[in-house]
Amino acid sequence: xxxxxxxxxxxxxxxxxxxxxxxxxxxxxxxxxxEARKLIIDMAASERGCHLGGSLSVLDILISAFYTTSNDxxxxxxxxxxxxxxxxxxxxxxxxxxxxxxxxxxxxVGHPFTGHPGPKVPGVTxxxxxxxxxxxxxxxxxxxxxxAGTSGRGIAIAxxxxxxxxxxxxxxxxxxxQRLANFTIVVDVxxxxxxxxxxxxxxxxxxxxxxxxxxxxxxxxDGHDHExxxxxxxxxxxxxxxxxxxxxxxxGLKPVEGxxxxxxxxxxxxxxxxxxxxxx
Length: 280
What we know:
Blueprint: E1 6-7, E2 13-16, H1 23-44, H2 52-68, E3 76-79, H3 85-94, H4 134-148, E4 154-159, H5 166-177, E5 183-189, E6 192-193, E7 196-197, H6 198-201, H7 207-214, E8 217-222, H8 226-233, E9 235-237, E10 241-246, H9 269-278
Parallel strand pairs: 3-4, 4-5, 5-10, 8-10
Antiparallel strand pairs: 1-8, 2-9, 6-7
Keywords: Thiamine pyrophosphate
InterPro entries: THDP-binding, Transketolase_N
Cofactor: thiamine diphosphate
């Protein structure tokens, strides 16, 4: 079975490793994702609410990236779309990197679980939130690991709306020039951003071809399929890697799936309980 929908620049792909994820492990990842989605709903029911739609869309990417790097202390996963912090905290908790339940103290004074992540949170190396900045952090980490002689990777997870930031493309150019084969950018292509649809504000036509033209190996895949995501993350190439992960804003929660209004949500406890019964 072909797991990846499309891979470009095949001549530069040295090897597509098998995902090596058995059914039992995939079941664990699916259970983690469901638990994390409930935590995100709890954070939406906090006093301050949270970026619900983007947190739910990026969640499976985060869980797959953490799975891929779980035995690699030299690699870092950087959530560049830092406003989806609720998704990051939930993913860190269900994968065992964060012991405290973030939903119990999300947005509260005196606790590290702020609306944008910072390094006081276990598992977070770089503060992010100002869009575009997490991508060069991850590229810089990758370059540092290469200079240090380790096999560590820098994996940036960005939003599609975030690609409107010029800093992203400056970093892409540098990563290609340096042939940073240990740098990966995963784009959460959910089609939405703060003020509406990406297609209405600044369309991303021919995105695969754009990354390829910069000198990246580019893979398109289902951003909610853990096996496909892990397989894509394990692509071995002599060039930097771009993974375009198609996702659904608000994934798993029918009342908000695909709706621009899910970008930032504040709900009461009763609605949270109702949503947690139907989330999948």
